[in-house]
């Protein structure tokens, strides 16, 4: 069974590392208290739905990523088709996804 606290913490940390930001900067952009975010990162507290929505909106990253339902921090889907595409792309390994992106860029 998925440990949701652990999964959320792991994905928040990964995203902060990807963005090269610290807890204070992350919290400020999401309009959350730094201590609250740190508590979530330390797996002491569970992320609330309102907080998840605030984080998702602040960074334009799908809630599914932070919940561990998709592997990559795709933008918030604007349609059902986009959401389906993101889920399919999330099934690819990182190497396959990068290969797919390269092929698309060649076509543009």
Explain this structure to me?
The chain is mainly α and 108 residues long. Helices cover 67% and strands 0% of the residues. The protein is built from seven helices and no strands. The chain has helices at residues 4-19, 23-30, 34-41, 49-59, 63-66, 80-90, 94-107. α2 (23-30) packs across α3. The protein starts with a helix and ends with a helix. 18% of the residues are buried. The mean pLDDT is 94.
Number of strands: 0
User: How many DSSP helices?
Assistant: 7
Order of helices and strands: HHHHHHH
Broad shape? elongated
Strand content: under 5%
Classify the helix fraction into a percent range.
55-70%
Give the rounded overall mean pLDDT: 94
Structural class computed from helices and strand pairing: mainly alpha
Alpha-carbon distance between the termini? Answer: 42 Å
The main pleated sheet reads as:
none
Tell me the Rg in angstroms: 15 Å
- Low-pLDDT runs of 5+ residues are none
């Amino acid at each position: 069974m998925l440990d949701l606290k652990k999964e959320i913490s792991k994905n928040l940390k990964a995203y902060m590392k990807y963005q090269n930001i610290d807890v204070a900067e992350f919290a400020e952009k999401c309009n959350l208290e730094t201590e609250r975010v740190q508590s979530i990162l330390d797996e002491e507290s569970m992320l609330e739905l309102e907080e998840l929505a605030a984080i998702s909106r602040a960074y334009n990253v799908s809630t599914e990523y932070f919940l561990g339902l998709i592997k990559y921090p795709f933008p918030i889907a604007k349609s059902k088709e986009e959401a389906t595409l993101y889920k399919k792309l999330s099934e690819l390994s990182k190497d396959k996804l990068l290969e797919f992106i390269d092929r698309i860029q060649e076509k543009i």
